[in-house]
Structures are given as structure tokens and as C-alpha cells.
Amino acid sequence: MADEEKVVLLTQEAYDKLKKELEWRxxxxxxxxxxxxxxxxxxxxxxxxGGYQAAREEQGKNEGRVNELTVKLRNAKIMQAPKAGTVGxxxxxxxxxxxxxxxxxxxxxxxxxATQHEVISPESPIGAxxxxxxxxxxxxxxxxxxxxxxxxxxxxxxxxA
Length: 161
Hints:
By secondary structure, the chain is α/β, with parallel strands linked by helices. Helices cover 38% and strands 24% of the residues. Belongs to the GreA/GreB family.
């Protein structure tokens, strides 16, 4: 499966924020860059015009981000977080790890725009270990360094924006 066809799981709020960013990049921001290019072009000699070169570079970055957002939004699936107590995509999970309590959102990195919590992927070692677990469960996973790490699920609740 090509990267472009990969389903992107998003909360409704993350989807809305990415859509708003896309609209801005395709509208006002694209126009602003075009105006800067036109103004720099009017100054003459483009080969030694730093403003022109910078605006063209910014235009390229913007178009790349527009393409990235277009693909993500086209392949987006709005996820419904599981009920409280069960860890799944879209859960806010509080765990006890190495004696410290930490709170994460389990899901795609793209939902980070909609939360102040750190996001962990369900494909990561820790994400795969806690996926499907319940509050009170103790699960373990193998860290990239080969160590076996035990995690206690303290709380799991649906993500709410």
C-alpha cells in the first residue's frame, strides 16, 4: 500500500484544524507569497535578488505542505475513541512508567494539533502494548534497547477537545 493510500486516523478537532490550515495555505498565504514574488521580480535582476529566492523557496515549502495536507485529509477517517476504561485509538491514557505517572494520547501524530498531551502511535512498542488494555492492567513491552518494560494503566478516557 502506498503512503498516500494509508488511512490517517484523526479526531474531529484535528481534522478541522488541518482543514483550516489547508484553506489558509491555498488562499491567503499562497496570495501573500505570490505578491512577494511579484514585488521582488519588479526589482529586476533575479539572479542576485535574495528576496525573490527566499519567496520562491517559501512557495515551494507551502506547496509541499498543501500536497501533504490534501493527501492526509483525503485519507482521513474520523475516529471514535473507545469508552472510558479501555485503551484504543483516540484514548487519553495515564500510565505509570518507571515510577512516574505520564499522560499521552494514543493515535496518529497528526492529532497532535488538537491536544496539549504528547501523542504515541499505536504502532510503537509502548502503543502496541497498551492498545486494548484496560484501566488497572499491567502490560509489558520490549524497548528498542531490548529491555522489557512494565507499564500500569492508571486511566483511559476518550479524547475530548
